[in-house]
Design brief:
heterodimer; A: alpha/beta; Rossmann fold; four-stranded antiparallel sheet; 10 strands; about 35% helix; B: mainly alpha; two-stranded antiparallel ribbon; about 5% strand; binds adenosine-5'-triphosphate; binds magnesium ion
């Protein structure tokens, strides 16, 4: 299945105020791959991710989803294929009740109304938030909002999942559940994060961004062993890979 | 009144609408129809009417009691906006000085009567709208309007107006909190800070609105919001829309308060 391919070619993007956020990025992610995008604050991760469903139109270069470039005509199809979980869940939840938020996508894509309820329940159950169904979105905790945002994207069953710091508000158990959930998701995944331990669990491949450019792209383990590279992007070796003599002796 | 309390009010109203009373369980459409009927009947009285209006309090009182709504709280909300109406109505006694009846030896001018009439009507109509929202919920009202063939663009405007008010209030209360935490005094902020904060708030809200729009498009938004609810008109709804409007028409035609007053007089005699 070649249609879950994400390809970015020589991408440039500058914000209205003149901030050059992306400065020549290229990569190709094939079907079923799971890729982490890491980098310091302001490296351009969110900006890059926004290009992948056409939320941002590149200034130069192109983004191809499934071997075709994103065009205006394909936007609807692309957005159904690429499910995007935004960095700030407050932006993602705009409907009165959690139920309406999760049902929003399926309703827009014309799912018959007798299936809506089941679809919403399933998506909420997957993120362990079924009991929030009738709550008002404005009054959830940050982690609950996060879970619901993810459910609202899962509800349209996208082929490609793009997540921008999906676990930044989650407690350890919810974080673990998210990791397990994402593991079961067999399609293409692209995850921007600072949580390198999660990357070890989920993404065999890592792309490091710095100042809008790709400075490394390859096997996650190899990259995380390169301390110089990590330091350059304000990152630290995943805890699991750090040598800790004292604890080491006890084992 | 500060920004946080406005936000709390909006949330509290939302909470009230989640209760589960017989009134809450009515179909939103039934409540909307009855309320619209109520408002039009109340507004249709001539400007010097006072006594006939009194009987119309039956409707809001009935709703308040059977939906177990906090009477005093809602009343306060109506009172808060009443100065605007008073300001408009106060011109009546100034310009309309003709005496129309004598009460306990003093002449009462037509202006004062119409002033009072406007106030009563304001209380009735604003109160009933507030009660409708409190026992139905803003979104349910929107959704019912959509079902009642109100143009979708209008319903959507309402929906997003409400949503963005929350965004604005949220951003606003965050900024106020941030300011309070860093200003180390409980003095009010100066004009200059206030101005720049207001500008900042506007920018933030526009940004937020843009990002929310982005999120909506990302999930296939194509210009119309459909809400999925199973609402059904049941026997109790039919009863509600059948009885109340009929009662309103009767109260419009016959002065119930007058009748009851006369009846009491007869009994007393
Ligand atoms: N709306 C905007 N207008 C102007 N500049 C922006 C805007 N959003 C981001 N930027 C700038 O673009 C650059 C990249 O930002 P981006 O949000 O993509 O970073 P990021 O890698 O996601 O960072 P973080 O880890 O903090 O989320 C930054 O320099 C930022 O200041
Ligand atoms: Mg970001």
């Amino acid at each position: 299945m070649s249609h879950h391919i994400v390809e970015v070619k020589d991408l440039y993007f500058t914000y209205h105020d003149g901030t050059p956020a992306i400065r020549g990025v290229s990569f190709r992610i094939t079907h079923g791959e799971s890729v982490a995008v890491v980098g310091a604050n302001g490296a351009g991760k969110s900006t890059l991710l926004h290009h992948l469903n056409g939320s941002i139109v590149p200034k130069h270069g192109e983004v191809r989803i499934g071997d075709y470039p994103i065009t205006k005509e394909r936007l609807k199809e692309v957005r159904r294929t690429v499910g995007m979980v935004f960095q700030n869940p407050d932006d993602q939840l705009f409907m009165p009740r959690v139920f309406d938020d999760v049902a929003f996508g399926p309703l827009n894509y014309g799912l018959p109304s007798n299936e809506i309820e089941a679809r919403v329940d399933k998506a909420l159950a997957e993120v362990g938030a079924l009991d929030l169904k009738n709550r008002s979105s404005t009054r959830l905790s940050a982690g609950e909002k996060r879970a619901v945002s993810i459910a609202s994207v899962l509800a349209v069953s996208p082929d490609i999942l793009v997540l921008d710091e999906p676990n930044s508000d989650l407690d350890p158990r919810a974080r673990r559940r998210l990791i397990e959930l994402l593991k079961t998701f067999k399609h293409t995944k692209i995850i921007a994060t600072h949580d390198l331990d999660m990357v070890l669990d989920l993404c065999p491949r890592t792309i490091i961004l710095a100042e809008g450019k790709v400075i490394a792209d390859g096997n996650s383990l190899e990259i995380f062993n390169n301390e110089k590279l990590l330091k350059r992007s304000n990152l630290e070796k995943p805890l699991r890979m750090q040598e800790c003599p004292d604890f080491g002796k006890q084992k | 009144m500060n920004i946080g309390s406005v936000r709390d009010d909006a949330l509290y109203m939302d909470e009230l609408s989640q209760k589960n009373s017989p009134i809450h369980r009515l179909d939103p459409r039934a409540k909307i129809i009855a309320s619209v009927f109520f408002i039009f009947t109340v507004l249709s009285f001539n400007r010097y009417e006072i006594f006939a209006l009194i009987s119309f309090f039956a409707f809001p009182v009935f709703l308040l009691v059977s939906a177990e709504l906090p009477v005093w709280y809602l009343m306060k909300k109506v009172i808060i906006i009443s100065p605007v109406v008073i300001l408009i109505a106060i011109f009546n006694p100034i310009f309309d000085r003709e005496a129309i009846f004598v009460l306990a030896g003093t002449e009462i001018s037509a202006g004062w009567v119409s002033f009072l009439s406007i106030l009563i009507r304001f209380f009735l109509t604003a109160g009933s709208v507030l009660i409708l929202l409190a026992c139905t919920g803003f979104y349910e009202v929107c959704m019912a309007l959509e079902r009642m063939r109100v143009p979708p663009i209008f319903v959507m405007q309402l929906l997003f107006l409400y949503r963005y008010i929350f965004v604005l209030l949220d951003e606003g209360s965050r900024m106020v909190r941030a300011h309070a935490l860093r200003s180390f005094s409980d003095k009010h902020m100066g004009m200059k800070t206030f101005g720049s904060m207001l500008g900042n708030l506007l920018l933030r809200t526009v940004d937020r609105a843009e990002r929310i729009n982005c999120a909506m498009l990302a999930r296939g938004f194509a210009g119309s919001v459909t809400m999925h609810r199973r609402i059904k008109f049941r026997a109790s709804d039919v009863l509600f829309v059948a009885l109340w409007p009929v009662l309103f028409i009767l109260m419009r035609k016959y002065n119930f308060s007058g009748l009851i007053g006369n009846l009491l007089l007869v009994i007393v005699k």
